[in-house]
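> call design_seq(struct)
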């Protein structure tokens, strides 16, 4: 390809504080519109903001997790612009002296590749409200519950070169903030939102092209689609002799289409100046070290522990530590069942498929770690074959009880009695004499495929309950005897 894609991200991470960044109003999601916006959030005359100490602790934790410099002096500015959901006419944010300075995140990509994405900085700021465009007969409604909710905005350097790398970074960031428990990671609720800056340039050039910004992407899939669509659009414009206009764009994940929103503003357009109502915030080395000691286990450390403690492969451990909820589900299942590898396989395969099918999040799964562990135990002790275990899992997921109850009710216990299996084998061989002769007359290289017929017949006769290992041993002994 003659073109190279250049991508930088601005990620809004909603901090999981109980109250807003400058007021005592609640940040709980789902309240009735305009019931959680107080006088301070609205900047009514005579009100003064007070910085939320927990927001600074969370931001410091994030900075330490991404190997960043921590700003011991951070200053709030006012970013002035008019929008209906910004009642103050300005957003209180950080510009010149943010809480988190330069850092980096290392990515593991397909094919064993690694990539370092530099973080320019991350700053604290307040969120705006929300405009509602439905059910208002051609007008817009404003919900100010979100106004004043604390955010950290993470700004990367333009280090990513594909949608794959951008999504990998976004997933890694999601894993970090949820593991730290500074953000719930619920993107459908706006807890993480991605603004993607995209430009293209001739391959080998060091000069950056004109960039566009696609705003407010709230899923990894939408991010990937939006990037690929915008890269294709920019290439088409340049190859047809046109020029890229610096602008803000929106992507609709339902229609798979993007549109121009407005020309892109520069910093000068916002007329930043220091907020006169908030003093600079000073933290010291003792505070930073105290925060470091209180930090939860990070994804990379957890992955290494899963490899060493549970004997998992690097790949499996990586999949299971993508987010905190999955890691906790696996670890609880493995601990109860005493069988980590089997637990890992079931979490990554059947449980994951069930959650996707039912649109459940793993933290709220109706198949609990206790229920899955009960199933794993019955596979481990030979009560269930892998095939029958899938039937039992289906019944568990339908709410029919735990594994033992379902096995008893449906009579699904695996048959491991050699005498009973031998009797079934004898009956199958007697009823299929021609196939037996064909097997014995065949070359060794062909027998492997032919034995599947006999296995299938015995399994059919046992209603799928014969122990596969015992069955194969008896079959081979009789056929080759």
């Amino acid at each position: 390809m003659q073109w190279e894609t250049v991508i930088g991200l601005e990620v809004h991470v909603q901090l999981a504080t109980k109250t807003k960044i400058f007021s005592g109003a609640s940040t709980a999601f789902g309240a009735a519109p305009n019931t959680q916006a107080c006088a301070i959030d609205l900047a009514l005359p005579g009100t003064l903001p007070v910085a939320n100490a927990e927001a600074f602790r969370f931001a410091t934790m994030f900075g330490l997790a991404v190997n960043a410099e921590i700003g011991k002096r951070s200053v709030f500015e006012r970013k002035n612009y008019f929008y209906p959901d910004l009642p103050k006419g300005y957003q209180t944010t950080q510009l010149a002296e943010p809480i988190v300075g330069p850092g980096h995140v290392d990515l593991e990509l397909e094919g064993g590749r690694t990539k370092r994405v530099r973080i320019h900085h991350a700053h604290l700021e307040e969120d705006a409200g929300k405009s509602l465009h439905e059910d208002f007969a051609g007008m817009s409604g404003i919900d100010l519950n979100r106004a004043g909710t604390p955010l950290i905005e993470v700004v990367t350097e333009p280090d990513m070169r594909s949608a794959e790398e951008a999504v990998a970074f976004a997933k890694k960031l999601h894993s970090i903030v949820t593991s730290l428990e500074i953000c719930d990671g619920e993107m459908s609720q706006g807890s993480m939102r991605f603004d993607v800056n995209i430009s293209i340039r001739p391959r080998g050039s060091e000069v950056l092209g004109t960039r566009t910004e696609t705003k407010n992407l709230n899923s990894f899939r939408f991010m990937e689609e939006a990037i690929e669509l915008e890269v294709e659009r920019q290439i088409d414009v340049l190859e047809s002799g046109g020029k890229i206009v610096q602008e803000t764009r929106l992507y609709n994940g339902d229609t798979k289409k993007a549109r121009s929103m407005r020309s892109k503003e520069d910093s000068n357009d916002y007329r930043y100046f220091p907020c006169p109502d908030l003093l600079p915030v000073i933290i010291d080395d003792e505070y930073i070290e105290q925060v470091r000691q209180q930090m939860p286990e990070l994804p990379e450390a957890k992955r290494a522990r899963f490899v060493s403690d549970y004997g998992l492969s690097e790949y499996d451990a990586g999949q299971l530590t993508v987010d905190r909820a999955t890691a906790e589900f696996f670890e609880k299942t493995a601990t109860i069942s005493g069988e980590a590898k089997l637990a890992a396989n079931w979490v990554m395969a059947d449980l994951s498929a069930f959650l996707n099918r039912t649109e459940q999040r793993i933290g709220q799964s109706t198949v609990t770690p206790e229920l899955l562990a009960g199933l794993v135990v019955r596979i481990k002790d030979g009560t269930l074959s892998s095939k029958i275990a899938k039937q039992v899992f289906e019944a568990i997921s339908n709410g029919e009880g735990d594994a033992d109850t379902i096995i008893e009710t449906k009579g699904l216990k695996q048959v491991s009695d050699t005498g009973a299996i031998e009797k079934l084998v004898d009956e199958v061989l007697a009823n299929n004499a021609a196939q037996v002769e064909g097997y014995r007359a065949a070359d060794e290289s062909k027998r492997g495929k032919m034995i599947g017929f006999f296995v299938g017949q015995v399994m059919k006769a046992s209603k799928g309950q014969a122990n596969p290992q015992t069955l194969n041993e008896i079959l081979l002994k009789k056929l080759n005897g």
